[in-house]
Write a structure and sequence with these properties.
The complex is a heterodimer of chains A (about 300) and B (about 250). By secondary structure, chain A is α/β, with parallel strands linked by helices. Chain A is built from 7 helices and 16 strands. In chain A, the strands form 3 sheets. Chain A has a 7-stranded parallel beta sheet with strand order 5-9-4-1-2-3-10. A 5-stranded parallel beta sheet of chain A has the order 13-12-14-15-16. Chain A has a 3-stranded antiparallel beta sheet with strand order 6-7-8, with no helix packed on it. The N and C termini of chain A lie far apart (about 50 Å). Chain B has about 250 residues and is of the alpha/beta class. In chain B, about 50% of the residues are buried. Chain B has a 9-stranded mixed beta sheet with strand order 11-10-9-12-8-1-6-7-13, with helices on both faces. In chain B, strands 2-5 form a two-stranded antiparallel sheet. In chain B, strands 3-4 form a two-stranded antiparallel ribbon. Chain B has one domain (about 1-220): HUPs (Rossmann fold, 3-Layer(aba) Sandwich), CATH 3.40.50.620. Chain B has 6 helices and 15 strands. Chain B has helices at about 35-50, 70-75, 95-110, 130-135, 190-195, 235-250, and strands at about 1-5, 10, 15-20, 25, 30-35, 55-60, 80-85, 115, 140-150, 155-160, 165-170, 175-180, 200-205, 215-220, 230-235. The chains are: A alpha/beta (about 300), B alpha/beta (about 250). At the A-B interface, α3, β7, β8, β11 and β15 of A face α3, α4, β9, β10 and β11 of B. β8 of chain A pairs antiparallel with β14 (about 215-220) of chain B, so a sheet runs across the interface.
Chain lengths: ~300, ~250
């Protein structure tokens, strides 16, 4: 038995309403400037004025949700949605959770979230009158065959000024990469002795049409690769067709980001590395020997 | 300027083990200050030094916070003082409860200019305590802040969104949650560790009833292992590479 109604708060275009459709009979949304695809009803707030943050709509969003009796509110996992989830939830007396699993049994919602850096999944029941959840990409498969009733209500609300002002918006330095949509990924870890040696991994990635990713120490220890390429519980979680871990021992905090890969392969010189307990195929060997030979053989 | 770094005592995940029945054992896991909280401490110290102010730590939680080893460890990383609300009843706080208790504690500290949090706690990682604390306090609140510079009565921060950087002027006081790459936390020297023993720890207690838990945990279990082929070649590299190459080509 599915839920009667779910609310979705969207800071931009998202499939979240289509995902929520799988759990509830009615999907309502709050969005900014335009209605949300897949929703039955969208309350449309104005876009934030120049220099203001949409997060400063938190009070109005909380008021709207309270006035409409929302019991379950979903947010995406992007930075702005996450902040809104927290500040809206504070006003509704809720503790937002990062949902990696969502289920409904007998009309009761069950939420799965990661615990202890990915070592475990905690199943929880939300005890507050309103549940606020941050839903990671891929958690709720989009239901495409029902477009939603598409009703729209414009809400004339003015931002409550927090005094914060956006002075500038700059593109991020360096490359932009969308690892979440990559079908094949080569991950590098501390087995690489020098930054220049990553060229070996780049060549392998180029050969098999893969994107390059890394474990946390490479992005936030030695800073050889940007944080956008870092996989782990506090970084990205991916579901690629193929993941090749090179010089990565396989700490749970990293593995949790790739253990949904269809095929997982590892190269590591330590035969006792935990990663070898999770692979489809692996080579125990020195990556400086294995990678050149592998690139040659492909 | 008074800068408050919020930290949480969490079991060291490296020493938590999962049994074959997927239950967890915490027997060997000691409580440590959260990995990402170290960024908040480091930033608090750096900003306090820049402004000639003070950097103080604040934590609410269970009896793990009573450990003098943990308290000294927190203080050895650059804080001038450490304030704690610790009670057995507070060992499993959710983010709303934590934020409410931190708000209570901040009220007892007699003013603050800036509250810093890490990217998330090492155990729950909801990434929400800072966001909720800021909302409860009714002050400007931001997450994913990568750089902070403070001037008189305001800060200018760089906040990382998915594809752009926002440069935002933030009136103080404010609550900011930092990215895990915003700084490299110091490793305490022997001198820091010795000095930590002489720094003050202030024990506070909640001045109002703590809100009821918003979340009821039903189970905590290690994820089910994906079934994998576990085809690991250990031997002649040439032969192993040839096998792997044909495996990859067949995908």
């Amino acid at each position: 038995m599915s839920l009667k109604e779910i609310w979705v708060v969207a800071t931009g275009p998202t499939d979240l309403a289509k995902g929520a459709r799988g759990l509830a009979e009615k999907v309502n949304a709050i969005s900014f400037g335009a209605s949300l695809a897949g929703a039955d009803l969208t309350l449309v707030l104005p876009e934030a004025p120049e220099g203001a943050l949409i997060e400063d709509y938190a009070q109005q969003i909380a008021d709207l949700l309270a006035a409409r009796g929302a019991k379950l509110v979903l947010f995406d996992a992007d930075v702005r949605s996450r902040l809104l989830a927290g500040t809206v939830a504070a006003r509704l007396g809720a503790s937002p959770r990062n949902a990696v699993e969502l289920g409904v049994a007998d009309g009761v919602l069950s939420v799965g979230r990661m615990a202890y850096g990915g070592l475990a999944v905690a199943l929880e029941r939300i005890a507050s009158p309103t549940a606020v959840l941050v839903v990671g990409p891929g958690t709720l498969p989009a239901v495409e065959d029902y477009p939603g009733a598409g009703e729209v209500e414009e809400v004339a609300a003015a931002i409550v000024p927090s005094g914060m002002r956006v002075l500038d918006i700059r593109p991020k330095a360096g490359e932009t990469v969308n690892l979440a949509s990559a079908k094949r990924v080569v991950g590098v870890g501390r087995g690489f002795a020098a930054e220049a040696d990553l060229e070996l991994a780049r060549r392998l990635a180029a050969k098999i049409g893969a994107e390059l990713a890394c474990s946390r120490p490479i992005a936030e220890g030695v800073n050889w690769l940007p944080t956008e390429r870092y996989i782990g519980v506090s970084g990205l979680t991916l579901r690629p067709d193929l993941y090749i871990a090179v010089g990565i021992s396989g700490q749970i905090q990293h593995l949790v980001g790739v253990n949904k890969a269809k095929t997982l392969i590892a190269v590591n010189k330590d035969k006792n590395a935990p990663i070898f307990k999770q692979v489809d195929a692996g080579i125990v060997g020195d990556l400086y020997e294995v990678l050149p030979a592998l690139i040659e053989a492909l | 300027m008074r800068i408050v770094a919020c930290v949480k005592a969490c079991p060291d995940t490296q020493d938590i083990t999962a049994a074959p029945d997927r239950t967890l054992s915490f027997e060997r896991a000691q409580f440590k200050v959260g990995t990402y909280d170290l960024n908040a401490i480091e930033a608090a110290r750096a900003l306090a030094d820049e402004t000639g102010g003070e950097a103080i730590g604040l934590s609410v939680g269970g009896s793990a916070l009573a450990s003098s080893k943990l308290r000294k460890d927190v203080l050895s990383r650059g804080l001038d003082a450490f304030n704690v609300i610790c009670d057995d009843a507070y060992s499993e706080l959710d983010s709303y409860q934590s934020a409410a208790l931190l708000q209570d504690a901040l009220g007892q500290l007699g003013g603050y200019d800036l509250v810093l949090c890490g990217a998330g706690s090492s155990d729950v990682y909801a990434q929400q305590v800072g966001n909720q604390l800021g909302a409860l306090l009714g002050v400007p609140t931001l997450n994913n802040v990568h750089k902070v510079s403070v001037g008189s009565g305001k800060a200018v921060v760089e906040r990382l969104l998915e594809s752009v950087v926002q440069v935002i002027e933030v009136p103080l006081p404010a609550v900011l949650s930092l990215t895990s790459a915003s700084n490299i936390p110091r490793i305490p020297s022997m001198k820091d560790i010795l000095a930590a023993g002489k720094k003050p720890v202030n024990q506070l207690s909640a001045s109002a009833a703590v809100p009821q838990a918003r979340v009821e945990v039903k189970s905590v279990l290690a994820p089910e292992q994906q079934s994998r082929q576990l085809d690991v070649y250990d031997g002649d590299v040439g032969a192993a590479v040839a096998k792997l190459a044909s495996y990859l080509k067949a995908l």
